[in-house]
Amino acid sequence: MNDFSVPTLQLDETICRTNIRRMAQKAQKLQLEFKPHMKTHQSAEIGKWFRDEGVQAITVSSVSMARYFAHNGWQDITIAFPCNLRESEAIDELAAQIRLTILVNSAETARQLDSALSNNVQAYIELDAGATRTGLSPTNVEEIERVIYFIQKRCSRIEWLGFYSHPGHSYSARSKDGIRQIHQSTLAQVKDLRQNLSIGDQSPDICIGDTPCCSVGTDFSGIDAISPGNFIFYDLMQQQIGSCNISNIAIAVQCPIIDLFPERNEIAIYGGAIHFSKEYINDSCFGYVAERSENHWTVPNRSTFLQRISQEHGIITCQPEDFERYSVGELITILPIHSCLTANLLKQYHLQSGNIISQWK
Amino acid sequence: MNDFSVPTLQLDETICRTNIRRMAQKAQKLQLEFKPHMKTHQSAEIGKWFRDEGVQAITVSSVSMARYFAHNGWQDITIAFPCNLRESEAIDELAAQIRLTILVNSAETARQLDSALSNNVQAYIELDAGATRTGLSPTNVEEIERVIYFIQKRCSRIEWLGFYSHPGHSYSARSKDGIRQIHQSTLAQVKDLRQNLSIGDQSPDICIGDTPCCSVGTDFSGIDAISPGNFIFYDLMQQQIGSCNISNIAIAVQCPIIDLFPERNEIAIYGGAIHFSKEYINDSCFGYVAERSENHWTVPNRSTFLQRISQEHGIITCQPEDFERYSVGELITILPIHSCLTANLLKQYHLQSGNIISQWK
Q1: What is the location of CATH 2.40.37.20 in chain B?
Q2: In B, residues 217-246, which contact A (CB 8 Å cutoff)?
Q3: In angstroms, what CA-CA distances link A62 with A42, A90, B132, B217, B354?
Q4: Inter-chain contact A133–B259, Cβ cutoff 8 Å?
Q5: Residue extent(s) of CATH 3.20.20.10 domains in chain B
Q6: Can you tell me the ipTM of this complex?
Q7: Residues of A with CB below 8 A from B256's CB?
Q8: What is the pTM assigned to this prediction?
Q9: Which CATH class is domain B245-358?
Q10: CATH for B32-228?
């Protein structure tokens, strides 16, 4: 495990599989379809760990990522990103091979996409649960009905499936109670929308997708499917939000120590923005220094953290009493702030077994 | 040029070659060795554009990047990153092939590295000009002499070459005058150090490396070499610092527009943290919307900028009067905040000619 010479992403397979199993069992117990998001790990090999828990359908964030997972045997894929009309041809090709679901958020997009398709796709309309990113406001019933009507009456290749909601404002929560409040407001939005829609006896499928709500929520009434992604690894941001404990974090980055500065209580490491990304919490924390204990990582001292990063350099602020633990030429373990971005940069997972798992690109 | 379907990095070869030529000519005029940093572009093909300007020696930020450029014919390479002892073997292999220069900042690192080498390397001692990142304080004459003495008397494979200084605190400047002040303080540090060092009639080689000072400085007395990197593309951060004008920026990202929200003055694009990184300026600007005019990009309205990003989503805030310019399914051009990180994420450069240039990994 400890012969890495450059910043290296470690993956604890046991913690990761436990995270997958916990969410799969929760979905099963609540009779929710589990369509996990693959954007966090981006690996067909890790995708198999979901198959081991009975997962049949997955979610991705781009057409090219859908193509990769389709090529690796997945037959039911949702692209949880608003339809990019410039990829209509690629969407059509994919729709010929698998059961493909996309997000269509306007009649105009539906019109242009439909005219480009020769194969059938399913479409969710995305609801903006409050993150003000993409999707239609769930209170904008008139516009939602207009899109549904357009898809159902005017499109020949698009089948309206229901609603997709990613309440990304759950990332602003700082406790389980805070997450639950946002989750309950999403459930209420969906309930109200169902009541207000004039769609006869149609029963739209509802999928929600954020890791905080899927991790902490217990009431999923009115919801049919969940598609969280980050929960597979979790990270310090999720821990801060209230989605997980430190012991649930499945990845860490091993970095060589390149210099010690006891006179200013700092440690220089090989590990910077091209390894961690520039995501931070608490104003200037780009990661906590961690240790291994009882089969998971722990953070012995939250005052010892990655405080500044440039392209390859990282500077850790370290308490004086901790200094003697570290030596130039040794490795130091950093838990990442945002595992999706860190994994996207480092591309390869090193398991305890010595095996290496690669991402798709 | 306009058939991109996903976020795509465009490179203007003319602007880029002009940036290279300007810096090469400045170095020549000032009798400075020009050892450009390759970490910004990371491409052997673009490296050839430096050869076209007579460049013989280059700078890189990692051992593996040095290996790549050595494999592509570069025979004189400086790794401007503190020696990572865990890569001693790789350093030794490289030293057998090329003239290799590294940074050695302590006697202990020199001792361990020397014992691992069977080939000769040159070493700079890094000076911390004020960025408080890595290197020795130029006023810590005693420690600097100790490292020089150790390398010269106790190491058989390391030859002490001189000093390397990256005054990265120039990034906090906000005007050409601010940059010049930092530059002059670096020159003064080096001058004082030379006077205070007891090294007989040895004449250490001095290399400085940041884009702001190399772009704006006019006095380089006492300096032997420069190794800037970012200037090849520049970016909005460099423009804000005062290193360049918008018209010097050589890269831009073309992003598909996926939705328009005139009611909240926002545009949703396909383009997020895995394309731009999470570097920002002015609290929440992840890039300006640009247009093409007179063979370079311009920023028509600084109130139209990329304000929020998540993994693949970007949200642009747009002035009401600009809205009619944009349509779903069209492309929008974004100038990046930090070209090094954006290029590192996007990996490929699309030229106006239609040619595509790839990075090394």
Answers
A1: 245-358
A2: none
A3: 11, 11, 40, 45, 24
A4: no
A5: 32-228
A6: 0.97
A7: 84-87
A8: 0.97
A9: mainly beta
A10: 3.20.20.10
